[in-house]
Amino acid sequence: MRAQSAKPILSLMGALLALQLSGCATQSIPKGALRLEESTLEVRALQTRRIAAPSETAILTATIAMLQDLEFNVERIEKPLGVISASKLSDADDSGEKTALFFLDFLCVVGGGGGCDSMSTAKDEQSLILTMVVLPSLEHKGEYAIRVTLQRIIYDKEGRVKVLQRVAKPEIYQEIFDKLRSSLFIEVNES
Amino acid sequence: MIRKFVLLGSLACIAGCATSTPVDISGNSAQLEARQIQTRQYDTLDKTLTMRSVIATLQDLGFTIDQADAELGSITATRYDQVTMRMSVTVVQRAAEKVSVRANARIDERAINDAETYQDFFVALDKAMFLTLNKVD
Lengths: 191, 137
Hints:
Order of helices and strands of chain B: HHEHEEEEEH
Number of domains of chain B: 1
Number of strands of chain A: 6
Structural class of chain B: alpha+beta
Strand content of chain B: 25-35%
CATH superfamily of chain B: Kinase associated domain 1, KA1
Shape of chain B: elongated
CATH class of chain B: Alpha Beta
Number of domains of chain A: 1
Strand content of chain A: 25-35%
Order of helices and strands of chain A: HHEHEEHEEEH
Number of strands of chain B: 6
Largest sheet of chain A: 6 strands, antiparallel
Mean pLDDT of chain A: 82
Helix content of chain A: 40-55%
CATH topology of chain A: TATA-Binding Protein
Oligomer: heterodimer
């Protein structure tokens, strides 16, 4: 009788031990975290343009002015390496974002789940983090190789991180380079 | 007997998890071993072109550059892709034509210590260095 009453306590303690052990164990590092993807060269091409400019100062000044046009804050510049780091905080509410939230709610309602209020998280904030590397082209003299990488963090209304992602849309990179060409044109013609 | 063992084990684990947070200054890895898996020596490009290749590699891997210092050979970068991954890479001129590259990576609060992940990074760097050497932007 005593042995029987001890069994649930024993199994409870066993379960507790297992829970503790799993809680103590650190999560494993994702495999291939630093492995190159096969699409790397395409991404490189998407993010890189060669632009002719009269001088390194002209192209760097035009790049900084363009970032200001796009309302970015320039955080750091390391001229010998051509690295410009910039960021900006803005609303995350483009129409695509809202459509995604709407569908999330729609699926939630259809699925019979409660608390379907993803739309209420609209007006999220997003932090855009950008690096531009502006260096003399290795291939062509008088030209500069410019590469942009862009990432974003979306925060919900409570300031919690909702999305961490690299920006991969080609049109966004194209827009940056179009704006840079205009900026360089203004820079060259003003000076 | 078994009951005592389970009880003790359970208590030990609770104690292990509930200790006050120590100042983790030393990290977990053995110093020399960590240096070995995190470092490679190159004799193909000079320090500046090696740094250019390191920055390109980090961009290839989806990082943005937080800061770079040409003189000290230090580059810090972050990637936001489901998790936050931070890397510090140091390029040091060792001899006339020898450059050493050391990389450190962390995911959120965890340091990466497995050799395979660093090997992947250096494979990516090899490719970027090949492109730089062949004057491909």
